[in-house]
Amino acid sequence: MSTSRAQFWIKTSVLSAAVVGAMMLSGCGKKEAETVTLNIGFQKYGILPIVKERGTLETALKAQNVQVKWVEFPAGPQLLEGLNVGSVVFGEAGEAPPIFAQAANSNLVYIANQPAAPKAEALIVQKDSKIQSIQDLKGKRIALNKGSNVHYLLLKVLEANNLKLSDIEAVYLPPSDARAAFERGAVDAWVIWDPFFAAAEHQISARVIATGENLVSNHQFYLADRKFAETHPEVLKTVVNELNTTTQWVEQNQQQAAKLLEKPTGLSLDILQSSIGRMGFGVQPISAEVAKKQQYVADAFYQQKLIPNKLNIDAAIIK
Description:
It contains 13 helices and 11 strands. With 319 residues, it is an alpha/beta fold. It has a 6-stranded mixed beta sheet, with helices on both faces. It has a 5-stranded mixed beta sheet with strand order 7-6-8-5-9, with helices on both faces. β6 (141-144), α6 and β7 (169-172) form a beta-alpha-beta unit.
């Protein structure tokens, strides 16, 4: 073979190798681009921080090439605002925050829920209070977080006893301020949810006047960004399955679950065990019945002028 022909074949081989290499790199780049990042908003207490501590969700999503990142929020309203602005695409909140988020034209959708947990919120008084019944609350000062799950509970408790919100003096305070006001006697009663409810029982022997039993559902909801939910339904299906599996583990291992929450919440094991024992165990897609009950809450908030417009909860559920 002549020198010129040899040089030609060498150049051709080098060029071919370069083209193949470029194609391989292009393929690698494409694979990397297909990696999905799931930003999850969570709070210090609940099922999601337990899932985070156990690391099982990362394992379950690995086969789908999904990376999980966790973003902590102080409460449900802030978490859903994070979902609305895109800092997270999935999170957990009680009944009330999604209603206010939807009323503000949020892009959230309901994905799943835990079963009703009516005993996980209550109207409580000090252990030595003279208040013995709901009727005794007439004209009294009651602390609550405005527009929260317990706001709805208070409405239903009063309604069941032929009283109105105007029959009591509502004092709107977040949990930490409400606890301080409750302890120093600045309010006569407090409507509150777990784990704050359990903490008041254990730490200051607060007495229960009424729980949500036979009055409210108190569902815990899992919500997602609408675009993410429509684009990645299989990812969210895996998440819901893992959440369901985790609640089953929690139900069977309540002490271990409580230990996982000790550090993030700063609460003692006995408080957390009481609180966990009142959870709803199991996570399932939103049913028509659950949607109907959430509609009741939204309608009640609209009637109290807590939201500006009447909502359609079904509009925030992907069929």
